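Re: Re: ligand-bound prediction request (bumping)

Still looking for help on this. To restate: I need the protein modeled with adenosine-5'-diphosphate bound, output as structure tokens. Inputs repeated here so nobody has to scroll up.
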Amino acid sequence: MTGNGETNGAPDERRLEESLEDLYEHAPCGYISTLPDGTFIKVNQTFLDWTGYSREELLAVKRLQDVLTIGGQIFYETHYAPLLDMQGFANEISFDVFCRDRRRMPILLNTVQQRDPAGNPLLNRTIVLSARDRRQYERELQQARKKAEEALDLRNQFLSLAAHELKTPLTSIMGHIELFQRRTGKEHSLNERDERALRTIAEQAQRLNKMIASLLDISRIETGQLAVEQVPIDLCALVNQVVDEVQSTLAGRQIELLCPIQPLIIQGDELRLRQVFQNLIQNALKYSHPDVSIAVAIRQEQAEALIEVRDRGIGIPQTAVPQLFNRFYRADNVDQENVSGLGIGLYVVKEIVELHSGSVTVTSTEGEGSTFTVCLPLDSTLPF
Ligand code: ADP
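Reply:
Sorry for the wait, this slipped through. Here it is.
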């Protein structure tokens, strides 16, 4: 005889039989057997302990539906019983049981129906699981989700409020700078150093203005309020204008432009599309050496217009590419180059392009340069 109750490796059958009975009665789940009409014919001790009923109060006296809440009784008749009739089993059905002291206990039922050879139901065997922990867990999960959503809402509200509040005084500052510049320009009343200082103030105010506009865009995207107009636009003319505008602010920096002569018409939002190309061109300039030109090319491919913005700058590490269009994301190599930014531009670019049913992609080699390609559907009402 060994210490674990086996003789010559054979199990002690008496102990095994006893433990089977014990397992049924005191299993960590309830067992109930019912007739097809729901009448209890066998229950284990665990179910009795959980609910407070005695065997005599249930067996042949009550039906399973009698100990369920009203809602549960309806669900029993409309879903659970028909499901058993139809497929012979039902899994993870959620009910609330009324215990003997009228406490409600959340449970989950797994039932298998026994049938005679002719297919008539004989009895239902059911495992009852306590769902208290699961419901508690689900409730906590829901609460955590609600809290996270509230925090997100609050952050969006703050973002939008802060951006609006910052915009008002800045607009006034910019207006006054412009007036001052115009007046002093006419009167030639500033010396060169003061004029330079005024120009720097104007440039920095512009920069601040752009940052605030980006924050407002983020808040619009997050609250689903970023909308685009749908009017016919000639992309060639629009990109030409943007290139000209950016070029006019650059001293000795070249933007090469390759553009078809015939117009490429799309349905879109002029201001928002300008923003897209300004952003991509500014990035190409920002992330490449001032001595090296950048290139913008437009072409038609079947029913789409493709706009490429190419630079021979610092490039993007391969690991960063999949995250590049995420909000606030900046690749590691920009720190080494000491180029400032918020990591918002490409996020907004992608949103705008997608609102035009288009796409934006990037190919890049670190240290060699990047090409951003915007693809937009041409106006389908016009012949291509
Ligand atoms: P920001 O330029 O303000 O950081 P963006 O959203 O415009 O924000 O760009 C996100 C990131 O993508 C940048 O921080 C940079 O890492 C990378 N990136 C964008 N354009 C280029 C480019 N032309 N060359 C190299 N990296 C780029």
